[in-house]
Amino acid sequence: MINSNGQKIFKPEVLAPVGDFERLNTAIAYGADAVYLGGGQFGMRAAVANFDGDNLKKAVEIAHQNGVKLYLTCNTLPRNNEIDALPDFLRHAADCGVDAFIVADIGVLMEAKRVAPQVDVHISTQAGIVNYLTANEFYNLGAKRVVLARELSLDDIRTIREKTPSDLEIECFVHGAMCMSFSGRCLLSQYLVNRDANRGECAQPCRWGYHLVEEKRPGQYFPIFEDEKGSYILNAQDMCMIEHIDKLVDAGITSLKIEGRAKSAYYVAVVTNAYRAAVDAYIENPDNFVLPSWIEEETRKVSHRQYSTGFYFGTPEQYYENGGYVRSFDVIAIVDDYKDGWLYCTQKNKFNVGDKAEVLSPKRKPVEFDITALEDEYGNAIETANHAAMKVKVKSDIAFPKGSIIRKEK
Hints:
The chain is α/β, with parallel strands linked by helices. The chain contains ten helices and 22 strands.
């Protein structure tokens, strides 16, 4: 696409996080161009389900059947006793058909080029790439893409784009949680609870409340920041760049990465849908891009900490209010089918006749929805759906598709 100034406009990739098959199918349905996930080893999210053995092959098949690329995280720094397992891990992933390895370690990069040269290699944000010299050297070593450090401004990214080969892809995080340490290289969790953040086991001690203790006053805790809730001196804000798609593309970013492999399927659906809609709106009119207000509002309907724009326009502040999340909506049901004026649903949270709700369907704007009648799975009229995972029918004049999310404001 060419804009009014004769410049070529590239449609950026929407890259969604995946932690299990539910989230994989959700990311695909709600508009991801590509997904990233972990295998059974060498990934930075030890607490999520991940995809090993035949599950990885199945995941690749699902993605490719829907025209979606799949990138495998291999971004830990492996220890000596793990190296022997690396070649077979990479070969298996290549045989499964993954589109790229995401790596942080030069040794892993070179081993990937040796044992699976047909698979692209992306350099993880864990590598801390902040300048064009480093990006170029990774390109010379065979990298197809670099995932830049989150600590860069748009001007920094633009310079890297201008001084690197045009076929080197640039990926940046645009949404989600941010680590308080540079490029995620944190030692707090390992030091405090012996869980190594650099091996996917972070306990997130940066989100804990801290107080000052004076050695001669044991048991007396003094807040470092005057707040009755505690002190969150290390607690980073979340990132949200949904309103700045045009600036991201102008800086030369080719892939917009959403953080959150440990987040819920609802989070994946809402945020992927929002960025899909934002990118499509930009491509439709790049010269006069104005983000529709409903898209920005969607990003606030998932659990999140106070948003910032990260380092793109300067240094973000810390989040001092608490260590948790803001959540304004609850998912009350998932649509399984539509027949004869009824939505066949699986209940997720209690709801009642008379409730006002919203329905979010893949690649669409949410629709306000009044719950006027309910039936149980046997066709009996009911006033409330109050049993976990119960099958319930919801009266509807609109045939919302399977996988649509019914939610209610808290």
